[in-house]
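Troubleshooting: if your tokenizer reports a length mismatch, compare your output against this known-good record of 254 residues.
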Amino acid sequence: MTLEKCWDHCASFGDQRYAGLQRGEICYCGSALNNYDVYGATEEAVCEYACTGNNEQKCGGLMSNSVYDLGGGPFDRCHPVIDPADFFNDCKTDWCAYEGPEQLCEDIESYAEACQLQGIPIMNWRASLTGFGCAMECTSHSHYEQCPPGNQPTCANPDAANEPCLEFCHEGCVCDNGYIFEGDACVLKSNCGCVDDDGNYHVQSDAVISETCDESCVCEGPENRPATRGWNCQPYACDGDTVCDYRNNMRGCY
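Known-good structure output:
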């Protein structure tokens, strides 16, 4: 859970102006402030739980909510820090130059990035501009998030999420549950390839002949994988009528 995920979830209902977060991972939505005022306000320090999706953010306390008013628009918290006037003027100039909104999405994206670089959480501004083609296109089995994890696991590096990453958000696409990045595509984890002894990644069924043609390695599918992560190497040799050579982008015996 992050602030952005809860805000976007509540905003998606259309009639829920307030978002409340509790215990680092619970998101509540309400249409009136008195939804959260039954027990009165408390000290801000009580809301000390770090958000499970971003430990730089606070998502309430044990029995207390961090409450946010969503009525001011996606950049409401950024305007006091970064004056949007210059960005707005650039947008007007581009609108006139292109005689239409061709650059609108890029202009607003520039302001969104400036806000996020300052560590300021923003709401999903793309969702409010559906008529202008600002939606970010994601590949199959993936979806858009305003503030995705900094390092997402990949087939080549499944432990990437545990590595240090940037401290600010940057919007992007995230693989759906059960899927993982293989290049720009999201595949089932069971369909990932292999990592060879030198740390190079290979897709399933990829075969490689060594430089001297004395070894042949193949990335096995999940049904044939031993404990060696599927990179299976066997002795290999050219017969007397062939030589080891590199032709047509492939090493082999010719």
